[in-house]
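The pair is set out directly below:
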Amino acid sequence: NRVVKRILVVLGLCVLAACRGSGNSGLAPASRNAGINVLLITVDTLRADHLSAYGYPRITSPRIDELASKGVLFETAFTYWPKTRGSFAALFTSLYASQHGLTVRNRDLPDFNQTLAETFQEAGYRTGAALDNGNLDQALGFAQGFETYEQTWLTGETELERTEAITDFGLDYLSATDDDRPF
């Protein structure tokens, strides 16, 4: 299933409203007892109108439905660039291509950008990601700010193995007891 193959779990993102380009953000480090953890799950090419959480009549996404019922479900979202790299560059930097530098010709995310993961890290969060999408390879600049960045296509032979690796990473990351920082 292409949707499963392209699942991208990004842990440690989303609460901060925007990334800054330079200078001091004015953010104080997060309290170790803040209790505010952030989990961002993205699935490349998944249609919301086929998810139960968004009103699809068949039960197609019970785990996503459960997560949505306990968190924040965004009902309206837009992308200015309908391709993975451009969309994630905008998501990670809150900038347009004319500002973040990733274009059709320059396909890497330039390291002068302040990413959302870097902003979280500076605020005292631990950051980690597990993914199975070569468009977001760390060599292309998308790992900026992540303490851990698991690229499952490098180690998993089959789609099922890569999906299990993402799940195992997420479970291990969420249950870590040796680091009490928010994630």
